[in-house]
């Protein structure tokens, strides 16, 4: 296969919004000028898409021309519409069942892609089905029997249906899009992807989208794409210019105090608090609830309906604080997040990029603050080195923080009591379900 041809937007074209060339380049383009038909342009308007994002402006014309595309862009850059719109446009020309397949690493992202597909395709009557673990396979089989145009799936559950659902086949598939490809491969979906690719027709259009280009993604590209063009609108480690990133250097024993102080400082704004474990996610949520905050946990050990419920409550602002493991770090489109707090630092800079990418999306501003304790200095230095810049320290009044000590200590005691009950229930479930090798059904959720 010939070498991948590259088209890149230089860093200066992505930096300051004040640069006149950027303004002309981005505002002069419309979806119609990219080649999108009127019905889909109308759907874009209905969704509030005023003009194409850089990745859309680069990828869509190539896709409409029939080329395979590798799209690299930071999270929140509009990658979903970049592969959904060309697929729907092609579907209009030659309508057929099982026309397109969109693969995603997590259940939430699969539902999100399906929602975007149905909304963008509402003007042309697109039928879509979602195949993810944790949901009833029989109901999904019935939905497949209705011959949808687009299948959105996680690899494990898709493979289960390909092997077990009578009459279901993708041998006539025309379009394949793989979203968050690097994350898919990090979650051990490599074998499932290989099996899926073997049963798909060779004559198809393929789009591969990712925030980073790892060696695993390179090998997937070679296996699944034909003479692709690569479009890149970000460096490997880049945060958007509208994001205000900073850190707090604090003693580990005072993390809870500083967390409550910051939440009071940003009262009324929507916040995501990232932790590294399921246990810590639950503990922090219990503690904040005891203090009167509207906090809701999100992690991989919740049932699928509970996870969707948590997301919906947060999106609708009936809860304004989401306490989450990295299950919420990638791909989720929660447009109104104002603040991201890294209560526990991620162990690598790639995860940091995705976490802080939950805010400052679609041109809006946002705040990200990371807690750096005496145990985290080395990790934080690695993150700053990867970002290529030293971030500023967030200013706080220590005396005002310490005033909260008594109230927070009492809330922490209540949280410990609730955690004992939570751990007992989890232990019972663990004995019932925790034996054996991880099934395909479990692969599309993250265990935090």
Automatic annotation (TrEMBL):
A motif (Q motif) lies at residues 29-57. It comes from the Eukaryota. Residues 29-57 form the DEAD-box RNA helicase Q domain. It comes from Aspergillus lucknowensis. Residues 258-402 form the Helicase C-terminal domain. Interacts with the SSU processome. Residues 60-231 form the Helicase ATP-binding domain. Keywords: ATP-binding, Helicase, Hydrolase, Nucleotide-binding, Nucleus, Ribosome biogenesis, RNA-binding. It is found in: Nucleus. It catalyses: ATP + H2O = ADP + phosphate + H(+). GO terms for molecular function: hydrolase activity. PANTHER family: ATP-DEPENDENT RNA HELICASE RHLE-RELATED, RNA HELICASE. Pfam families: DEAD, Helicase_C. Residues 1-25, 428-448 are annotated as: Disordered. The keyword Oxidoreductase does not apply. This is ATP-dependent rRNA helicase RRP3. Its EC number is 3.6.4.13.
């Amino acid at each position: 296969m010939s070498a991948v041809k590259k088209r890149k937007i230089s860093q200066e074209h992505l930096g300051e919004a004040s640069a006149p060339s950027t303004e002309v380049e981005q505002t002069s383009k419309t979806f119609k000028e990219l080649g999108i038909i009127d019905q889909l342009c109308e759907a874009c308007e209905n969704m509030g898409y005023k003009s194409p994002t850089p990745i859309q402006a680069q990828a869509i014309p190539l896709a409409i021309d029939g080329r395979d595309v590798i799209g690299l862009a930071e999270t929140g850059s509009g990658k979903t519409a970049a592969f959904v719109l060309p697929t729907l446009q092609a579907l209009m020309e030659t309508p057929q069942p099982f026309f397109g397949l969109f693969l995603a690493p997590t259940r939430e992202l699969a539902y999100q892609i399906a929602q975007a597909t149905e909304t963008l395709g509402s003007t042309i009557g697109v039928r879509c089905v979602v195949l993810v673990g944790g949901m009833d396979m029989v109901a999904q089989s019935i939905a497949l029997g209705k011959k949808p145009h687009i299948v959105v799936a996680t690899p494990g559950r898709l493979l289960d249906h390909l092997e077990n659902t009578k009459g279901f086949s993708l041998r006539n598939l025309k379009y394949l899009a793989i979203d968050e490809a690097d994350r898919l491969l990090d979650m051990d979906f490599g074998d499932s992807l290989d099996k899926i690719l073997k049963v798909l027709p060779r004559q198809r259009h393929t789009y591969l989208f990712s925030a980073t280009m790892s060696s695993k993604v390179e090998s997937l590209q070679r296996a699944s794409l034909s003479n692709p063009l690569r479009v890149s609108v970000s460096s490997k480690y880049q945060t958007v210019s509208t994001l205000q990133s900073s850190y707090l250097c604090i003693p580990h024993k005072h993390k809870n105090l500083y967390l409550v102080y910051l939440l009071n400082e940003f009262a009324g704004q929507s916040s995501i608090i990232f932790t590294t474990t399921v246990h810590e996610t639950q503990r922090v949520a219990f503690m904040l609830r005891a203090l009167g905050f509207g906090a809701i946990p999100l992690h991989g050990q919740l049932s699928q309906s509970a996870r969707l419920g948590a997301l919906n409550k947060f999106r609708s602002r009936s809860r304004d604080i989401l306490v989450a493991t990295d299950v919420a770090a990638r791909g989720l489109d929660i447009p109104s997040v104002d603040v991201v707090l890294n209560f526990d630092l991620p162990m690598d800079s790639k995860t940091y990029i995705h976490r802080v990418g939950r805010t400052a999306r679609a041109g809006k501003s946002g705040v990200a603050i990371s807690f750096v304790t005496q145990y985290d200095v080395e990790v934080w230095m690695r993150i700053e080195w990867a970002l290529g810049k030293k971030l500023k320290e967030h200013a706080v009044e220590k005396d005002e923080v310490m005033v909260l000590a008594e109230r927070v200590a009492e809330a922490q005691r209540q949280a410990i009591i609730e955690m004992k009950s939570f751990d007992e229930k989890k232990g019972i479930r663990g004995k019932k379900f925790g034996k054996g090798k991880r099934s395909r059904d479990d692969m599309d959720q993250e265990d935090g």
